[in-house]
Design a protein that fits this description.
mainly alpha
Length: 82
């Protein structure tokens, strides 16, 4: 509680925005890494299916990246609106 009392409004806003983006992109980052590793493993096992695997991988990465973009939008809102 002492830490919260010592923070000014601007410092609390910057801390909240930093935590929002930091925590918000951890999941998509890990998810994209797992997707890439799984796709490379699948292509290594079945090279003939590389086209469809790559298409599905890129689609899944786009959905995961959208979550990171939502975290970015929230952090920008915290910086400029709150």
């Amino acid at each position: 509680m002492v830490l919260l009392e010592a923070l000014s409004g601007e410092a609390a806003k910057l801390l909240a925005a930093g935590l929002a983006i930091a925590i918000g992109v951890i999941g998509p980052g890990i998810g994209i890494g797992i997707l890439g590793a799984g796709a490379m493993n699948a292509i290594g096992r079945n090279p003939e299916a590389a086209g469809s695997i790559t298409t599905n991988m890129i689609l899944a990465i786009a959905f995961a990246e959208a979550l990171g973009i939502y975290a970015l939008i929230v952090s920008v809102i915290l910086l400029f609106v709150v």
